[in-house]
Predict the 3D structure of the following.
Amino acid sequence: MIQNNIRKVLSKHNVIPVVSFKDPNDVEPTIKSLRSKGIQCIEITLRNEAAFDCVKAAKELKIADFHVGIGTVVSVAQIERATDLNVDFMVSPGIHSGLAAAFEKSGIAFIPGIATPSEIILGKQLGWDTFKFFPANLFGGIKALKTYSNVFPDIVFCPTGGISEATHQDYLELPNVISVGGSWLI
Ligand code: 3PG
């Protein structure tokens, strides 16, 4: 199995704003504000009832070169719904072989989450090479990523969790970090 072209998507966005909307009316002004800061993507998390409507609202804006991702994906049903909405990328906080077939079948770029070496090995077994490192601040942050770079030289990460304006640049300077994500951008 081949992980979809998530590296291509992430290479266009060194920072990914992670947003939990409660109201679809908030989507357009938030995206406008992000674009005014030069940010051309958003990850909308599935953490409340309004989440899918908010993703739909973001996609309906049809902004050229703006990527709408869906985050906190934890089930096959969510992957199928996200696929129907034609999201630009999908993010999961964890990794599970039960989601692999649905992710691959979707044809949409996706990034599973890992925190430990065993999870990275599971991801490699599934044929994947690009992971969200979450929650980065609680699982060793920059020190862990430096160790993972020695142990898993072919793996690239998008750390999220506890990253801030003050720390994000230090993460981005690591050779195995392609992008960083977080709510500090909103
Ligand atoms: C995520 O899902 O990536 C996190 O909720 C973002 O973490 P943060 O809110 O600590 O930036």
Summary: The longest strand covers residues 15-19. Helices lie at 6-11, 27-36, 51-60, 76-84, 97-106, 117-125, 141-151, 168-172. DSSP finds eight helices and nine strands in the chain.
